[in-house]
């Protein structure tokens, strides 16, 4: 039992160190030796948890995707909005989210660097299915198609924000995106009950603490 | 006069070679010597036109932005839609557009590599101002804000498409994006006159011919 706890702690250290190094250097340049050093973990312990760097990178992405948004009750569409705002708020201090943005940016140039598009699409799809079931979405809405569209537009907005000097605030850029997207997604009766700025975006304590050292090269 | 023509031809060779090398290697790794070799141009001729690699990279982006969409008559909003489809069609064979996508992907990791976000936003803004003037857009639409939103969502869609295996066709992904965005952008009376798949996307002969050799590393 104690051993299991220790193994889980080691796994979390590796995920966190992996995310931090990827966020700072990019997926392609992230080295296993730097990750091991940051995590304070031996090579043997690493390979117990992850058979390859690839597997570790995948696990970092899946870790973020496993953060299930809260079910706040109707309208469900608000959950999707809130989730993007919460991720944006957390993004600057949560290494998992910073790693994900970095990987999205690297998606063309980084060989064998998976991007977070599929994970985000899956997250949105789950939320949209609940919305559709509750009769919030426009007739003919296909949750899978809409989820791809939302994932592409949402990650594009995060990249745009990073690339153009981070003005205005990301939360304002997200609100604009939702104002443009929602009328094509939900019924008017739902629309006027939604807040594009995020109804409840108080950021919960994430899976990682805030006392992290940053790798120096965090531009 | 002859000298001027020759200078213009050299400049175009450099722009084209620059775009091809950037598209293949990324902006950061694109080397001036490879660009010179592809263009068949001397270093002296390069510096006559572009004082630095930076200046050449900027010029490649501006070259694309200078492609003004045709004024097809009302509804002007259709011009924006058609333009994105035309760019998507041309993207796979036009080195300027491939370079731009590559730079958008590199926007976080590539030091000093400008991304095309601002250029696309400016292009959309011009089109949206015409739409707004013609009374096509929803009351309260701010062309500058909407242009940023469209540029982010559009480039995000191109990256998503590249990163997720290019299925479905880019033109279908763009149509879905427009179907989601247009109800939040234009008046219902305009909306039902628009074709999200692009009304007229026959690709004109671009600024570059199609007989280009590709650098080998074009993943």
Automatic annotation (TrEMBL), chains A, B:
Biased composition (Basic and acidic residues): 210-219
Region (Disordered): 198-219
DNA-binding region (UniProt annotation): 31-50
Every HTH tetR-type domain range: 8-68
Domain of life where this protein originates: Bacteria
InterPro entries reported in the protein's UniProt record: ArpA-like, Homeodomain-like_sf, HTH-type_TetR-like_transc_reg, HTH_TetR, Tet_transcr_reg_TetR-rel_C_sf
Keywords: DNA-binding, Transcription, Transcription regulation
Transmembrane segments: none
GO molecular function: DNA-binding transcription factor activity; transcription cis-regulatory region binding
Keyword Transcription in annotation: yes
Protein name, UniProt field: TetR family transcriptional regulator
Organism from which the protein derives: Actinopolyspora mortivallis
């Amino acid at each position: 039992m104690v051993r299991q706890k220790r193994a889980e702690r080691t796994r979390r250290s590796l995920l966190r160190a992996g995310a931090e190094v990827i966020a700072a250097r990019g997926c392609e340049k992230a080295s296993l030796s730097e990750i091991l050093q940051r995590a304070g973990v031996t090579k043997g312990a690493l390979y117990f948890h992850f058979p390859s760097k690839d597997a570790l990178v995948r696990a970092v992405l899946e870790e973020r995707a496993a953060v299930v948004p809260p079910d706040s009750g109707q309208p469900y569409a608000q959950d999707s909005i809130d989730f993007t705002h919460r991720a944006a708020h957390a993004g600057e201090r949560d290494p998992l989210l910073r790693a994900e943005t970095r990987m999205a940016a690297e998606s063309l140039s980084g060989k064998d660097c998976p991007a977070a598009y599929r994970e985000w699409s899956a997250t949105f799809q789950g939320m949209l299915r609940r919305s559709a079931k509750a009769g919030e979405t426009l007739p003919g809405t296909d949750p899978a198609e809409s989820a791809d569209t939302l994932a592409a537009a949402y990650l594009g907005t995060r990249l745009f924000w990073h690339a153009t000097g981070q003005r205005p605030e990301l939360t304002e850029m997200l609100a604009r995106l939702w104002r443009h997207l929602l009328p094509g997604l939900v019924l008017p009766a739902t629309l006027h009950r939604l807040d594009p700025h995020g109804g409840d975006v108080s950021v919960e304590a994430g899976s990682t603490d805030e006392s992290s050292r940053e790798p120096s090269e965090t531009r």
